[in-house]
Amino acid sequence: MRTALRQPLARTLGAMGLCLLSSQLHAQDAAALKAMNAPAGALWADTLNLSTIQQGYGDPHAGKSVDNNPITLHGVVYPHGIGTHAQSEMLINLKGGATRFVAMVGLDDEKARSAGSITFDVLVDGKKVFSSGVMRGGMEPKMVSIDLTGAKKMLLRVGDADDGIDSDHADWAGAMLMLTPGGAKPEAMPAPQIPVVPARYVPVKVSPKPAIHGARITGATPGRPFLFKVAATGETPLAYSAKNLPAGLKLDPATGILSGSLTNEGRTDVELTVRNGLGTDTRILTIVGGEHKLAMTPPMGWNSWNCWAGAVDDAKVRASTDAMLSSGLAAHGFQYINIDDTWEGTRDANGEIQTNNKFPDMKALSDYVHSKGLKLGIYSSPGPKTCAGFEASYKHEDQDAATYAKWGIDYLKHDWCSYGDVVTGEGLERFQKPYKWMRSALDKTDRDILYSLCQYGMGDVWKWGEDVGANCWRTTGDINDSWGSLHSIYSSQNGHEKYAGPGHWNDPDMLVVGKVGWGPSLHPSKLKPNEQLLHISMWCMLSSPLLIGCDMSDMDKFTIDLLSNDEVLDINQDPLGKPAGRVAMTGDLEVWSRPLSDGTTAVALVNSSSDPSAIQADWKDIGVTGKQPVRDLWLHKNAGIFEGSYSVVVPAHGVVVVKIGKTTR
Question: 3-state class of 391 per DSSP?
Answer without folding.
Answer: strand
